[in-house]
């Protein structure tokens, strides 16, 4: 038999070919890396930074569990204070945050004048956990407002 007529011996796939096949399977099944975060971020929460040197909350505040660090976001706080200035009616804060996907946990059990709203993403490598706290005076006005964001994944994000 001449060389052209002989059956070809199959060569084992190269390392590159194996990798390409694995990447293709991963891309089709979305099983090799985290997916996109959901729900998507509302404009209020886009392009934020978080100060990793946040304060530790003390008992009495409903914003975070005792001893957990906050990550103050200057951009978020600035946006909130521009939209809801101190001394203005507090009712629109809760209404507007609910409209963009926040869950409102208020009033705080230990401090009835404090309010908390949380936006929590899931399903991705670095989901955002945004928490907004505001204080309401007896006559329903905003006394203070700030925003914190967390990007470090934990068990509640999966």
How many beta-strand segments?
Answer: 4
The helix/strand order is HHHEEEE
Overall body shape: globular
End-to-end CA span = 62 Å
Largest sheet: 4 strands, antiparallel
Helicity, in percent? Answer: 10-25%
Protein described:
With 158 residues, this protein is α+β, with helices and mostly antiparallel strands. The chain contains three helices and four strands; from the N terminus they run H-H-H-E-E-E-E. It has helices at 15-29, 74-83, 91-99; strands at 103-105, 114-120, 129-136, 142-150. Strands 1-2-3-4 form a four-stranded antiparallel beta sheet. The longest helix is centred in the first third of the chain and has 15 residues, at 15-29. It is globular and about 45 Å long. The model is unreliable at 26-31 and 55-60 (pLDDT under 50).
Structural features:
22% helix; 4-stranded antiparallel β-sheet; globular; 4 strands; 158 residues; alpha+beta
Give a brief description.
Helices cover 22% and strands 17% of the residues. It is built from three helices and four strands; from the N terminus they run H-H-H-E-E-E-E. It has a four-stranded antiparallel β-sheet.
What's the SSE blueprint?
Elements: H1 15-29, H2 74-83, H3 91-99, E1 103-105, E2 114-120, E3 129-136, E4 142-150
Antiparallel strand pairs: 1-2, 2-3, 3-4
